[in-house]
């Protein structure tokens, strides 16, 4: 239990220190309008990943039905 609390408190401190710093790269992306490209790429990757997982789950379900 003590190890968990130590991990939790250290994670909280790390998160607080990470939020305090300015991120110049993100500000530059926003200024150039490239942040929308980054968001679009991340969205396409996530949609592709979810589509793959959905297709894989349907194939597994079909195999499970066939084995019964």
Q: Count the helices. How many? A: 3
Span between N and C termini?
44 Å
Q: Helix amount, in percent?
A: over 70%
Number of strands: 0
Mean pLDDT across all residues, rounded?
A: 82
Structural class by SSE content: mainly alpha
Description:
With 68 residues, the protein is mainly α. The chain is built from 3 helices and no strands. The chain starts with a helix and ends with a helix.
Question: Could you give a quick summary of the protein structure above?
Answer:
With 68 residues, the chain is mainly α.
Please give the structural blueprint.
Elements: H1 2-20, H2 24-32, H3 35-67
Write out key terms for the chains shown.
68 residues; mainly alpha
């Amino acid at each position: 239990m003590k190890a968990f609390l130590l991990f939790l408190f250290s994670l909280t401190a790390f998160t607080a220190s990470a939020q305090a710093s300015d991120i110049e790269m993100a500000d530059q992306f926003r200024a150039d309008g490239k942040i929308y490209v980054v968001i679009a790429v991340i969205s396409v990757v996530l949609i592709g990943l979810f589509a793959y997982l959905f297709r894989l789950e349907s194939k597994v379900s079909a195999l499970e039905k066939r084995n019964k």
